[in-house]
Structures are given as structure tokens and as C-alpha cells.
Design brief:
With 139 residues, the protein is mainly alpha-helical. The chain has one domain. The chain is built from seven helices and no strands. Helix 2 packs antiparallel against helix 7. The protein starts with a helix and ends with a helix.
Length: 139
Amino acid sequence: MDIFQASWSALQAEAAAYPWGVQIWMRVMAVSFAIGIVFAPWKSGARWMVAALAVNIFGLIAVKAAFPELSRTEIGTVIHLIFWSFALLMIWKPEARIRLKAAPASGLNRIYLIWLVGASGVMAASLVLDAITAAKILF
């Protein structure tokens, strides 16, 4: 258990050293995805968003524990590019879009769709930034 606490502390210290704009963006992502908890019991897109948040948190800790020499940026970039890309594909695959269009036009469904589009936009923007980061790391 100590290794995971040490990993968490190291990750927090690295995040605290990020520029304030990056820290704000990380909070925006966390809040955007966490809101999915409200819709998760009924909506698969929300479950994918919450899963993305959980995979990110637990993945960061587990990989940092196994490979302490890797930076938070390196670990997060790989997790995002692999899992978040998959999550977006699952959220917006044709069958899911058909279900979204077929859902009753209730106020709650409208709120869900607005949130899902917004959270997906945040995730997609992060993936673009992660691709740039990966290119810088690799080249």
C-alpha cells in the first residue's frame, strides 16, 4: 500500500508543478467526466466517461508504482491516447448515435446530450493536445 501512496504523492507533486493553465484544464476534464456519475445508471455514454476518469486515475497510480521513472505527462498521454480514443469511439459509434436520436425528447435527455457533447469535446481536445505531447516526446 505504501508504494501506491508514494506514487499518488509523486503524481500530485508533478501536477502541482504544471503551469496554472494546465492545472485548470485538468480540473475541467475531471469535473466534466465526473458529472457522468449522475447519468451513469441509465446512459452508456456516461458510463464510458466515468470509466475514462477511473482508468486515468487508477492507471496513473498503477503505472507510476510499476515505473516510477516515467513522468505523469508520459503516463497520462499514453493512457489518454489508448483508452480515451476507444471510449470516444464507443460513445459515438453508429448504434449509440441511433439510440441517442431515438431517446424521448425529455428535459433530462436534452441535459444529458448537452453534457455528453461537451464532455466529448473536452476529451477530444485533450486527445489533440496529447497527440502533440506524444510527438514531442517521440521526436
